[in-house]
Amino acid sequence: MVLGGLEKLGRLVLYSLEEAGKIMMLFLSAVAWAVRPPWRFHLIIKQMEFVGVKSIFVVVLTGTFTGMVMTLQLFHGFRLFSAESLVGSTVALAMTRELGPVLSSLMVTARAGSAMAAELGTMRVTEQIDALYVMATNPVKYLIVPRVIASIIMMPILTVVADFVGVVGSYFVGVSILGINAGTFMKNINKLVVLDDIFNGLIKAAVFGLILSLIGCYKGFNTRGGAEGVGRATTEAVVLASITILVSDYFLTALMF
Amino acid sequence: MIKLIGLNKSFGKQKVLDNLNLEIESNKTTVIIGRSGGGKSVLLKHIIGLIKPDSGSVLVDGEDIARMNDRELNDIRRKFGMLFQEAALFDSMDVGENVAFPLKEHSKMTKEEIRKTVAERLAAVGLAGVESKMSSELSGGMRKRVGLARAIALLPEIVLFDEPTSGLDPVMAEAINQLIKETQRNFNLTCVVISHDIESIFKIGDRIAMLYEGKIIEAGTPAEIRATTNPVLRQFLTGSIEGPIKII
Amino acid sequence: MFSLSSEAKVGLFVLVALIILGYMSFQVGQHGFSFKRGYLVETVFDNATGLDKDASVQIAGVEVGRVESISLKNGKALVVLRIKPDIQLEKDVSAAIRTHGILGDKYVEITPGTIKTAFIPDGGAIEQVNRPADIDRMLSQFALITEDIRAVTSSLRNVLGGEAGESSIREILTNMRELTRSINTVVARNDDKIADVVENLKSASKEMEGTFIALNQVAQGLKKGEGTLGQLLRDKETGEKLSKTISSLQDVTEKISTGKGTFGKLVNDEETAKNLSDSLAGINRYVNKAEQYRTYLSYHGEYLFDTSNAKSYLDVRIQPNPDKFYLLGVVTDPRGRRTLRDYTTGGVTTRVEEYDKSGFLFNAQIGKRFKDIAIRGGIMESTGGVGLEYFAFNDKLRLSFDAFDFSSDRRAHLKGMAEFQIFKYIYLSGGWDDFISNQGNSSPFAGISIRFEDDDLKYLMTTTPIPK
Fold first, then answer.
1. In a domain, C246, yes or no
2. Strand pairing of C294-304 and C128-129?
């Protein structure tokens, strides 16, 4: 019994290490292929459209409502200290430092990371990836590099939008509905949020973009077992990417702030 | 000229290729037959370097592709074309783009030249004018023909076929067989076909090899194969359930 | 069909995001010198707890810089401030670490100096540092004070406790008694002196009069232009008058300060001060009472579905304190007021029910509230009745149940309703009126109320005595 449990634990650790190592290898090979010409800008643009432009709606929706609901909740708490005027800056700090990058990354993981896993997984099980190899086109360069680059570029840009609409949503609820003074609302944002908050958030977002695309591609690229395998790969990609984003967020925060 | 020498390959505890030796002659069609799941596809993927052997060599024009790195493999693969079992057309592209893909990647042709070449290749497989269809709109037979058009787009020396007639009705299977024969003759290709469709193999094969339990147990011309005394091959050709082949 | 290429969409999106980013970066952290402008000034604090890098540096609440760095130097905190280039600090400014509010951020407060000619150069130091009056310090002082108090109480205990203490207290008390006695005798002996004081007071006022006359003369002389100030001073008569004036003024002030004269008494008398503070307390009480008083005006209209009638209520609710209220009001009921009259004709008495349709019905109730439950009783719609109310969700929801019009010939009028506040002054209600009626009056109803607190009425009511 005890040995069985230990064995399971050991296997889990080994499996996780192996996965992490493989993802790292894929990352290194992606970097190697990314710096080697020819560069396929049209593929990157296409992925940027998919990862970025098509995620605008969901990111705006998430950002706005996060800002709004946070304002609503914070308002009641802060009112106990007569600190309503700090609601805006608190929301703005939370959005720029944490929620903007993390929530939009999670949304993009769910939307685009899963799609990457599914698309590459399907290509794997229908031998399209083998076909690329056979046609002397490296699939890492052709499929993974554009996705990773596009995600790294688009995540910070989506985060900028999420931060902005979050604060706009907060302003709307705080000033228009809850009646916080508009001047102090903005003044406290001005006073307490600094440029570094925004930029550190954007750096985080870029790292999250790398994580979600790399894991999505890795899971898709190594799919086994037909349609079921594709489904499994998609689920695993979303779960693993989300967990990795949340965990790495902690370490990034510890490093930055 | 492709030479497979002493190939060994295991997946976990299962030995798929067991000290396998085979010579594939240039400009001829070699058919490799064997049981379903008996390692034929694995063998084919060894020839093109998609899978590397645990030991042994794969010599293509004297170069051992089992020892090559990614870059060298990329170069040698330009000699190859391959038709996959389900054709492996790119879903995200239309037929024209699929066939044009290797041309765009590896030739310095202008757009116009590419367009013309794509039309030629499609015409060669009897599908002139379907460039703008998406691959999902095609029937199984059409997909295989588009796959063939793509495989021969760069006029490779060697074309590999992974079960070209599986999943097709007899008429379409016959049409594909004809197409393989014609293409081989027209472009003077070295073709390697894996199949377990007995009807087809004698029609297209210049040489036939039987893969059984990780080894090539018999290789020869169709006439030699027909006259074989090997009980395994006999049982396989007649499709009898009685004989040395174990049915699990 | 107008459509954008992938490139165009991506480009547009990136452009929009960059514009937003640019806008945001101008909205945050724009303090003018986040780009390392300004000069550095050093200052050393004993303790820089809670002070962060980039904390604000302020003069009179206006930000003039930021904390550049905090490091340790000889066991003290060396804080380097970056001051805006257009701000000059005098050599004798002092710095202190302060807190915004109780829980707020720490910042460095600089108190301006007085030397307006010498300023601290770049890299200079602020010499004067004030100890921060922060919570830590306050708490430590509290601790010291408590220590003192404990010391005092313990020595007191030593003095009072035991026989020695008791005897010394007795001694003190005896001394006290003796002291009062001698004071008494002093006062008795000086009885006629007190009469003198009154006399003095009279003469003092007379002297004042004389002084004013003299002053008047001087002023008139000045007005007439009789000589310059020099002449005035050289003039013997004037000089004498002036010195006389001053001496009598001195007299007056002396008398006032020793408690002589009416004015002096007013200033020095404790009784007066007590009276004054009493009257202030009285005013306070009055105001407090008025503050507690709440008066609500309400109009409530309801529509009875089954009887197709509308009823209107106009109420004044007076609440002298939170758990007690009075309700006065009028009700219009289209059914009118029911009266019973006995007619006796020919020895036969017939009881006739009459409805006075023009009349109002009246409410006059007294109520008491226990937390979320209130009971009412008194006159309801011109009959006797009682009611029960239940409040929930910060009084936004009110459930009430009334029973009134108890008469022998028919069932009591019962009414249940729920009322919910939808806006500040607007309430929606619904319920069932007269639901056990055997007169066919039972009906569900829906209603709307307007209720607001009236401040003017409140003060009117507080002046009217109301039995408590």
1. yes
2. unpaired
Residue B126 phi/psi, 5-degree rounding, is 75, 30
| C20 within some domain | no
Give the range of the structural domain holding residue C415, as residue numbers without chain letter.
Answer: 292-463
Nearest to C297 by CA among C464, C458, C461, C452: C452
**Nearest residue of chain C to residue A52 (CA atoms):** C10
Residue of B nearest to A131 (CA): B88
Contact residues on chain A for B90, CB-CB shorter than 8 A = 123, 128, 131
Residues C125 and C139 in one domain: no
> Which of A47, A48, A76 would best serve as a mutation to test chain C binding (most C beta carbons within 10 A)?
A48
Does ipTM surpass 0.90 in this model?
A: no
The distance of A142 to chain B (nearest Cα, Å) reads 10
Q: What's the number of domains chain C is made of?
A: 4
In a shared domain, residues C354 and C208: no
CA-nearest of C418, C430, C433 to C309 is C433
Cα–Cα distance measured from residue A199 to residue C28, given in angstroms and rounded to the nearest whole number:
12
Alpha helices in chain A (DSSP H): 2-34, 41-51, 56-79, 87-94, 100-108, 114-125, 128-134, 139, 145-171, 182-192, 195-221, 226-256
Closest CA of chain B from A86, distance in Å:
50
Tell me: do C41 and C168 sit in the same domain. no
Could you tell me if C315 and C454 lie in one domain?
A: yes
- Smallest CA–CA distance, residue A210 to chain C, in Å, is 18
Q: Do B91 and A128 touch (CB under 8 A)?
A: yes
| CATH at C433 | 2.40.128
Interface of B with A in 209-238 (CB under 8 A): none
Instruction: State how far the Cα of C373 lies from the Cα of C233, in Å rounded to an integer.
Output: 86
- pTM score: 0.58
Q: Is residue C45 a part of any domain in this protein?
A: yes
Look at residues C260, C291, C322 and tell me which one is the last residue of a structural domain: C291
Q: From first to last of the 468 residues of chain C, give the pLDDT tens digit.
A: 457 788 888 888 888 888 888 888 777 765 444 556 788 888 888 888 778 777 888 888 888 888 888 888 888 888 888 888 888 888 888 888 887 765 567 788 888 887 777 788 888 888 777 765 556 666 677 777 778 777 777 777 766 666 766 777 777 778 778 777 777 776 677 667 666 766 776 777 777 777 777 777 766 666 565 555 555 555 666 667 767 777 776 776 666 666 555 555 555 566 666 666 666 666 666 556 656 677 888 888 888 777 667 788 888 888 877 788 888 888 877 666 566 666 676 666 666 666 666 567 888 888 888 878 888 888 888 888 888 888 877 788 888 888 888 877 777 888 888 888 877 778 888 888 887 877 777 788 888 888 877 665 555 555 544 444
**C6 part of a folded domain:** no
Q: Do A194 and C9 touch (CB under 8 A)?
A: no
Q: Based on C-alpha coordinates, what's the Rg of chain A?
A: 21
CA C402/CA C388 separation, integer angstroms: 6
Is residue C149 located within the same domain as residue C263? no
Query: Using CB atoms, which residue from A81, A158, A195 is nearest to C28?
Result: A195
Q: Which residue of B has its CA nearest to A128?
A: B88
